[in-house]
Amino acid sequence: MHFSIPETEVRSGENGSNYVAYNIHVNGVLHCRVRYSQLLGLHEQIKKEYGSNVVPAFPPKKIFTLTPAEVEQRREQLEKYMQAVRQDPLLGASEMFNSFLRKAQQETQQIPTEDVALDICLSNGQKVTVNILTSDQTEDVLDAVATKLDLPDDLVGYFSLFLVREGVDGGLTFVRKLQEFELPYVSITSLRSSEFHILLRKSYWDMAYDGDVMDNRVGLNLLYAQTVSDIERGWILVNKDQHRQLKSLQEKGSKKEFIHLGQTLKYYGYIKFDPCITDFPEKGCQVIVSAGNNELNFHVKLPNEQMKEGSFKVTRMRCWRVTSSQVPIANGTTNPCSSAKCEVKLELAFEYLMSKDRLQWVTITSQQAIMMSICLQSMVDELMVKKSGGSIKKMLRKRHNGSIHRTESQQAVKSPPLLDSPDPNREQIVKLSTKLSSVSLRGISASNSANDISGNDFHGNYAFEGIGDDDL
């Protein structure tokens, strides 16, 4: 997650006096407004619980009223503080930190705690309505959905809730995976748009775990609905013969066999992102990125209109980072701009082992850059837990943000050619009818309003716990 405090505002308190509010954004969207005193209170609690040697530096109190320059300085310092706490595997995953953010989110949106009905979408378009409290966190809502569907407790962790946006053409844009520091009802309500939905989808990548899910009737139906949906959307590619086989299995109601055939198809289990821009193999190329099978797949349109396809394996990525910057909206200036005249530009860049002893940075400019980073992180988490002999069930159920370093035995593996011409024999399947849903590499996320990406992790920067140069 990308935390930033891009702006402040002067607000009026209950006693009529003015105070400075610091607007905390997550992934470029306002999450909450807090006062300095609230953050100071959080700092004191964390320091009491974890000790002064663990907690990052906090900007000091001032005796006199702050000048505009001092307010800006404090904003930058508080932003660095929030990013430092969030990146710490102990502090960032703590209930103390997450509950503070949940309470602040609810207070900011001025939504009282009360009983409400919340719609959760399944992959086939159906909705499950759950009765929750507005103050229920993500895990509570997921548990409520599982109870409503009669999904066993030991399978709940195989699924997650995602915030998605549905386009007028039915296209689906994944915004983010809902986190433990937010309240799903408040998050979806604050967007004030019917385009946004909360979607239930499997949260693992290795299809070997499909077997665990398919052993249960509800799990089988959810996985089947997701597979059918991904095929209909063109996320999974099939040819005519495969289409006939799938259609036949569907007509017979052979859901397991349908999924088993789906597992053999290209892009099974991938998340497909909206068209964006990359600098590989050259600057300004249009690209469609998909995440799955421990890789980022590129479908690139070169300047000469030629189409190329290739993959970047997560095991060959030394590190990655997400950067954000404020970009003027057609005002013809390069001056710092107000939020009303700026938009947030997001980029995901990763350093890739192209060949022996040759590393190269590859950059993707996309509003879904943070979601791509989350996908990479979860792939590495899953790979490393599996390699260490740990329980994938336990990892999924905890949905933690912990960190487990990559060992020397996990070396970069050989990757296929980066860009090949796409297979002309594959085509999208026609719509199938249905009625029925921590290990870590260093991924540095930087908030950079000055348009220069410095080596300092904290000029508005946020760094995930990760590996060093010797780990590759």
UniProtKB/TrEMBL annotation:
Region (Disordered): 399-425
Topology with respect to the bilayer: Peripheral membrane protein
Ras-associating domain residues: 119-205
GO MF entries: phosphatidylinositol binding
Main location: membrane
Location(s), subcellular: Cytoplasmic vesicle membrane; Early endosome
UniProt cross-references to InterPro entries, sorted A to Z: PH-like_dom_sf (IPR011993), PX_dom (IPR001683), PX_dom_sf (IPR036871), RA_dom (IPR000159), SNX17-31_FERM_F1 (IPR048763), SNX17-31_FERM_F2 (IPR048767), SNX17/31_FERM (IPR040842), SNX17_FERM-like_dom (IPR037836)
Keywords for the protein's UniProt record, in alphabetical order: Cytoplasm, Cytoplasmic vesicle, Endosome, Lipid-binding, Membrane, Protein transport, Transport
GO CC terms: cytoplasmic vesicle membrane; early endosome
GO biological process, one term: endocytic recycling
Residue ranges of every copy of the PX domain listed in the record: 1-108
Database matches in SMART domains: PX (SM00312)
Matching PANTHER family: SORTING NEXIN 17 AND 27, SORTING NEXIN-17
Family per similarity comment: Belongs to the sorting nexin family.
Function of the molecule: Critical regulator of endosomal recycling of numerous surface proteins, including integrins, signaling receptor and channels. Binds to NPxY sequences in the cytoplasmic tails of target cargos. Associates with retriever and CCC complexes to prevent lysosomal degradation and promote cell surface recycling of numerous cargos such as integrins ITGB1, ITGB5 and their associated alpha subunits. Also required for maintenance of normal cell surface levels of APP and LRP1. Interacts with membranes containing phosphatidylinositol 3-phosphate (PtdIns(3P)).
Protein name: Sorting nexin-17
UniProt lineage: Eukaryota, Metazoa, Chordata, Craniata, Vertebrata
